[in-house]
């Protein structure tokens, strides 16, 4: 799962194709009911939640939704979606490329659920077997009609799948928190520069 070489376009395509042939084996950890997890967080899994207001007004929500559809929340310099033509749709495979500590990873997840209402937009995905982590992660945009605030929320339940990620758990957790901070910053910057 880890490599000193950046994956080529052919390797990315081959990885996605190999996952597409396998059944989804993920467990649904994050099905939320009225703000609470529908099931208990499994033993040894970490539960992370980060949320921030990224702007105001329905135009900001529209800009943030467009940014989601372009995978801007992953466009962090050290992380990117390697198949950016992928759409936010149930069953879609998303390949996320990351470079940490001079090591490259290509992690493939499958979208399990899409939320699309007048005041919210987002999705839940689960890592496949070709991912350094296991669990689920939700990315959400939420608009409050009263305050006009647009919130961006990232929630995850995860534990390392890869032996190397388990061995370096404190470093793995550091990069998970680093991703959340950078993703919130990226979304704020993206909607700030989108035409309203």
Labels describing this entry:
single chain, 196 residues, alpha+beta, Alpha-D-Glucose-1,6-Bisphosphate, Chain A, domain 4, 8-stranded antiparallel β-sheet, 27% helix
Low-confidence stretches: none
Give the helix tally: 4
Largest sheet: 8 strands, antiparallel
From the coordinates shown, what is the CATH architecture? 2-Layer Sandwich
Query: What letter string, H or E per element, gives the SSE order?
Result: EHEEEHEEEEEEHH
Spell out the CATH superfamily.
START domain
Number of domains: 1
Share in β-strands: 35-45%
What does the average pLDDT come to? 90
- Helix/strand-derived class? alpha+beta
Rg: 16 Å
Number of strands: 10
User: Helical proportion?
Assistant: 25-40%
CATH top level class name:
Alpha Beta
Oligomeric grouping of the chains:
single chain
Verbal overview:
- The chain is built from four helices and ten strands.
- The longest helix is centred in the C-terminal third of the chain and has 24 residues, at 169-192.
- The protein has one domain: START domain (Alpha-D-Glucose-1,6-Bisphosphate, Chain A, domain 4), CATH 3.30.530.20.
- The chain has helices at residues 9-20, 58-69, 163-167, 169-192, and strands spanning 2-3, 32-33, 36-37, 46-56, 79-81, 93-100, 103-117, 120-127, 133-143, 149-160.
Give the topology.
Elements lengths: L1 E2 L5 H12 L11 E2 L2 E2 L8 E11 L1 H12 L9 E3 L11 E8 L2 E15 L2 E8 L5 E11 L5 E12 L2 H5 L1 H24 L4
């Amino acid at each position: 799962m880890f490599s000193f070489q950046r994956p080529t376009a052919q390797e990315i395509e081959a990885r996605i194709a190999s996952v597409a042939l396998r059944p989804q084996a993920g467990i649904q950890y994050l099905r939320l009911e009225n703000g609470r997890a529908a099931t208990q967080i499994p033993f040894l899994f970490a539960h992370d939640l980060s949320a921030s207001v990224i702007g105001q007004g329905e135009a900001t929500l529209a800009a943030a939704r467009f940014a989601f559809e372009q995978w801007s929340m992953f466009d962090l310099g050290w992380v990117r979606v390697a198949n950016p033509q992928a759409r936010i749709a149930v069953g879609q495979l998303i390949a996320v490329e990351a470079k940490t500590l001079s090591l490259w990873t290509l992690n493939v997840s499958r979208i399990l659920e899409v939320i699309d209402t007048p005041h919210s937009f987002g999705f839940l995905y689960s890592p496949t077997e070709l991912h350094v982590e296991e669990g689920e992660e939700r990315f959400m945009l939420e608009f409050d009609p009263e305050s006009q605030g647009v919130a961006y929320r990232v929630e995850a339940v995860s534990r390392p799948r890869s032996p190397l990620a388990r061995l370096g758990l404190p470093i793995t957790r550091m990069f998970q928190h680093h991703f959340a901070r950078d993703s919130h910053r990226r979304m704020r910057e993206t909607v700030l520069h989108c035409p309203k």
